[in-house]
Amino acid sequence: MDEKGIRGALTRYRVMAWIVGILLVVLVCVGVPLKYLAGNDTVVTWTGIPHGWLYMILLITAFDLGRRVKWPLWRLLVIAAAGTVPFLSFVAERYATKDVRAKLASGEIGRPVPATD
């Protein structure tokens, strides 16, 4: 895989990890207390549904990145689980970014595929 494709996949994954993570934190730290303590489920409705849909996109971006950098299945499962635990998606994103950047810097991945004639 080429470096440009890997960097693009990493950016897509990072954006989705942050969006999903922020929505989950708002849902759990604001929405759930409002719903059960104040009887107002507006925040739960407006963050829970988008979080669920965007979580599916996070899974797709994580799979795409994992496929490009040849992550083992366990790493993809950890990333998938991280999107369901408040604050953990930020930690998983940080470790994934660090891993991919280290692999790119070492030349382990990201060499352009030579054209065949």
Automatic annotation (TrEMBL):
The keyword Membrane applies. It is found in: Cell membrane. It holds the Pfam family DUF3817. GO terms for cellular component: plasma membrane. Keywords: Cell membrane, Membrane, Transmembrane, Transmembrane helix. InterPro entries: DUF3817_TM (IPR023845). The chain crosses the membrane at residues 15-37, 43-66, 73-92. It is a multi-pass membrane protein. Residues 10-98 form the DUF3817 domain. PANTHER family: MEMBRANE PROTEIN, MEMBRANE PROTEIN-RELATED. This is Integral membrane protein. It comes from Naumannella cuiyingiana.
